Amino acid sequence: MHLSTPQLLEIVAAFPDSTLVFTEDGYCIAHLGDQEAHEFSSSRLLTGRFVSDVFCEEKAKWFLQQIRNSIFEQRLRVSEYAISPEDIRLPNCESAKLEREQWFEARILPLNSFIDGQRAVVWAARNINERYKLEQQLRRLSETDELTGAFNRRRFFESLASQYRTFHRHFLDCSLIMLDIDNFKRINDQYGHPCGDRVLKQVYQQMCAHLREADICARMGGEEFAILLPNTKTNDALHTAERIRQAIEQHQFTALQRQVDVTVSLGVSSIAVSDSNSDSVLQRADDALYQAKKTGRNQALQFHEQFSI
Known about the structure:
This protein is 40% helix and 24% strand. The protein is built from ten helices and twelve strands.
């Protein structure tokens, strides 16, 4: 028994995922499947159009690159990608359904035959939005401090090691700030641990207000935080540390209807060519922090060699 062509087409059309056919110039000849009821279907937008007609320049280039890479490599490619409202340039009632970013997994396979004289690929797209959101949520939980929302030690050390490798490969500056809340034990003893917890959260919020999106702020334990500043020289990091110090000193901390005076001490260092590992820069920032606390607290100090003597 053999299936007829109409039967094969009917079977493929019943697939829950979208199956598209693209020529190497980015024209979508047709799509099959897509029987799952999604709020948004990029397949219906693409059919009978070039990717450049539907998407902004950057996203269209990405689609074309995936198509041509698959044809050049002559193998299956698997890619995850997002489509957001900003990506779509085509005014269409279907595109209006896209209210927020949606994630997809594409399985792209080159065809052996030519279509209208062009090489082509089959592009099977699966909506993975729910899976992606769950993965991101689990990742956030594994990387963040439950109390403050800052990154945790594990994420910090991963980022520090990555920046260390980047520095020694490309010589891109990277600095580090260690921060400790002054006399935090006294706050806990005088007002209780719930009050101390609220102070920790507010200190973290004050730090974030003076950091860039690329910066990594982590709670290292207790009342100590570490801030990783990519593409930042030591003097610039010291200025950032001083802004954070002043902001926290001037902020009115309230916890459990109590006014709490809070100051912090900070130590600053940068990755150096002489560093044999990423622990070296962390030790220097710790030494600078220790000196700041030793010589009066409520100050930000840059590491100097005499600190470690």
